[in-house]
Structure formats: C-alpha cells, structure tokens
Amino acid sequence: MHFNYEVPHVRLHAMYKLGGNVFFFPLSGAGPAQIEVFNLKVEGRIMYTKTVNEDNEEIAQVTKTTFDKFTIQDMNLSIRDLLPGYPLFSTAVHSFGKAYASQVFDIIKPEIAEACEDVITNELLNPSLVQFPHLTEYITDQ
User: pLDDT tens digits for 22-38?
Assistant: First the structure.
C-alpha cells in the first residue's frame, strides 16, 4: 500500500543531555528542547501480510514501512541551557542552528526516517491492526 501525507506544522518537545568536545572546546548542557517542522511531506509504502494471533484469529501485520520521500520546507530548533557559562558561544550555536536547520535535517534525515518507520510499524500500525481481525478480508498477501 502506498501513502502520501502532508503535515503543515509539527512541534516536538523533548529533554536533551549533551556532553563532549568540539575540537578543544567542551560542549555540554541539559534541559528542554523544542523542534518545529514546517510543511513535512512523506511518501512511502507499507508492506503487510496475514498472520494468526493468540486467539487463532487471522490478522493483518505490517512487515515494513518505508519512506520513499521525506522532506521539510523549514525547521526551527530551540535548545535551552546549552553551554551554561558560555553565553556568547551558546548564542552562536543557536544562530547557526536557526540559519542551517534545514541543512542539518538533510544530514540526519536517514536516521530520523529509520526511527519513524520503526515507530509507525511497531508502535502504531501493528498494535492497531490487532484490534481489527476482520480487516484481513480486504487485503491480500504481498
């Protein structure tokens, strides 16, 4: 099955913890972060098969979700409490993040896509399909 989704605005809230060095400069911080994504577009495929659950009912099971196209128009990243004690460097990192957020997204996109594919398959679709054994009447094995 193919899908094509467009989401105009996504806002994610998270907690982060960062520690390490960039060249000789210590990079650390911990606290809240917010990511806003604008005009997210995802096209892909869902592969599924029929299987039998513990009640011996035939159910549909997603075997793989694949993103063929995964793009955004823009992204904002806000990280609080980054580099405490180094306000000038912290401001520079935030400015870089705002100016180059889309380019950073392109670099990390494969990891984000893989994680999202896994979550959609194992945390969203398969637990939902277990609740509807009658859906197997409408699908064929792929």
Answer: 777 777 788 898 888 89
The token pair that represents 69 in the structure block? 């196209």
Alpha helical stretches, state H, the chain: 87-99, 101-119, 126-129
Q: Where are the beta strands (DSSP E) in the chain?
A: 2-22, 25-52, 58-71, 74-79
Q: Rounded distance, CA 29 to CA 58, Å?
A: 50
pTM higher than the cut 0.85: no
Please give the Cα distance from 40 to 131 (Å, whole number).
29
Question: Tokens standing for 135?
Answer: 């859906």
Angle formed at CA 31 by CA 28 and CA 33, multiple of 5 degrees: 105
* 62 to 3, 13, 46: CA distances (angstroms): 14, 28, 7
